[in-house]
Amino acid sequence: MKTTREILLAARKASAAVRTADTAQKNAALLAMADRLLAGSGAILAANARDMEAAKDRISGVMLDRLALTEDRLAGMAEGLRQVAALPDPVGQVLRTVERPNGITIRKVAVPMGVVAIIYESRPNVTSDAAALALKSGSACVLRGGRDAFHSARAIVDALREGLEQAGLPREAVSAVEDTSRQSAQDLMTAVGLVDLLIPRGGAGLIRSCVENALVPCIQTGTGICHVYVDREADFDMALDIIDNAKTSRPSVCNAEEVCLVHRDIAETFLPLLKRRLVDDRTAKGLQPVELRLDRAAAAIIGGTPAGEADFDTEFLDYILAVGVVDSADAAAAHIAAHSTGHSDCIVSAGRETAERFIALVDSAAVYWNVSTRFTDGGEFGLGCEMGISTQKLHARGPMGLEELCSYKYVITGNGQVR
After folding, report:
1. Where are the alpha helices (DSSP H) in 99-147?
2. Rounded CA gap, 81 and 129, in Å?
3. Which distant-in-sequence residues (6+ apart) come within 8 Å of 347 by Cβ?
4. The predicted structure's pLDDT at residue 139
5. Rounded distance, CA 139 to CA 260, Å?
6. pLDDT digits (tens, 9 = 90+) for 297-342
7. 3-state secondary structure of 240
8. Which string of DSSP letters, residue by residue, matches 323-367?
9. What DSSP assignment string belongs to 62-77?
10. Could you tell me which residues come within 8 angstroms of residue 270 by beta carbon, excluding any fewer than 6 positions away?
11. 3-state secondary structure of 419
């Protein structure tokens, strides 16, 4: 087994070849990687079945869904690689040009990061998404998945490396850490000089650990306590559709809704409809109902579980929804400011003035008006896929695509000017 440092040294060496690869070669590699991913589906699904069997008694059903791979999900991963190949190459783009009076020309040019390390948990699709975006943006990537997805990630990386070699690029441009202990994560966090950017993708504990302990540059990503506020001017059918989608379409992901806020003027009418949609109707259909955790005002109107002290500050990643009643859009924005993680928050309202004020007040990476929070995703934003959802404000914010994985440098040309 190679040590994490050995893998990083090889990735650093490979990054030079990726940095200088032209667009045609990178695109050829991405298309070959997509083909090899599908060609290797048997081995990948077998590896995933091994991971699923080992995890089934340790993690919840919704987390098992995050871990699971199918032919359709593999096809989606391959399509993501192809979409990234079709996007413009960010490397070398001139972001700004300044002509100085002394004849010097100053150009601000997008350049690769170098080596990007990603620490993630149980979503095998992150493996191909990260590899695609790193490669197209001119960087090598080192992937450290969680133990639950270890065999799946390794099989995916094997397939992707075949595509790299087919296009004449080094295998080490995409690498997987072989040690799943906490030490390997610590090694990545402290690999000064070898890792240019560290991106954690996972739960609050993982992200906090990286932000607090990393000595290398780190992007804070992921944790999503996402809100939907139903205003008194909301269309009820639209609101129910948005909430249902945001909560139940895939509750284990970071852009799923965790909190619903309802204007007091409509609460007595809307909350029974909400309970019927998320609890009664789902139960009648044989689907898992949503557990509603209600503040005092909501509990006085519908049945559910009384909200505990932490329920409005919890990323449930499950069929659980905290529900509260507020007096206004401003009060909803204030609640979000106190409890949101700055990921994705939504207002449902027919009132333009109210919605625009809410959008101005809510300081999150993505703010929605009459749209489900489930759209905070690189593919849905036209980025092909994403490296993660940044919830910080420096360098990158929201879905991190190709542009966000580049840095820049200044290129200055002249004809002998001296100062």
Report:
1. 125-136
2. 7
3. 228, 229, 231, 329, 332, 354, 355, 358, 359, 362, 367, 368, 369, 370
4. 97
5. 40
6. 999 999 999 999 899 999 999 999 999 999 999 999 999 999 999 9
7. helix
8. EEEESSHHHHHHHHHHH--SSEEEEE-S-HHHHHHHHHH--SSEE
9. HHHHHH---HHHHHHH
10. 230, 234, 236, 239, 262
11. coil
Residue with more model confidence, 39 or 60: 39
Q: How far apart are CA 200 and CA 4, in angstroms?
A: 17
Radius of gyration of the chain (CA): 23
307: left (phi over 0), alpha (psi -120 to 50) or beta: beta
Kindly report, residue by residue over 368-405, the tens digit of the pLDDT.
999 999 999 888 888 777 787 888 777 788 888 899 99
Kind of pairing between the strands at 398-399 and 320-326: unpaired
What's the CA gap between 69 and 78, in Å, rounded? 13
Compute, in degrees rounded to 10, the torsion defined by CA atoms 349, 352, 354, 355: 60
d(CA 175, CA 143): 6
Confidence of residue 48 (pLDDT cuts 50, 70, 90): very high
Q: How confident is the model at residue 93 (pLDDT cuts 50, 70, 90)?
A: very high
Strand order of the β-sheet with 226-230 is: 305-306, 291-294, 320-326, 257-263, 226-230, 344-348, 366-369
Tokens 């390794």 — which residue?
Answer: 154
Residue 303 corresponds to which amino acid? G
Place of tokens 């009384």: 306
Copy the structure tokens of residue 361.
């007040």
Tokens of 325: 């009643």
**CA 356 – CA 157 distance, rounded (Å):** 45
Question: Is 343 a residue whose pLDDT tops 70?
Answer: yes
Three-class secondary structure of residue 253 per DSSP: coil
Task: Kindly report the pTM of this predicted structure.
Answer: 0.81
* Number of residues in the chain: 419
CA distance 412 to 99: 10
Indicate the pairing of strand 398-399 with strand 389-390.
Answer: antiparallel
pLDDT band for 253, please (50, 70, 90 cuts): confident
Reported in sequence order, the residue ranges of 131-268 that DSSP labels E, i.e. its strands, are: 140-144, 174-176, 197-201, 226-230, 257-263
| pLDDT of 222 | 67
Q: Residue 72, Cβ neighbours under 10 Å: how many?
A: 8
**Of 143, 79, 86, 8, which is closest to residue 402 (Cα–Cα)?**
86
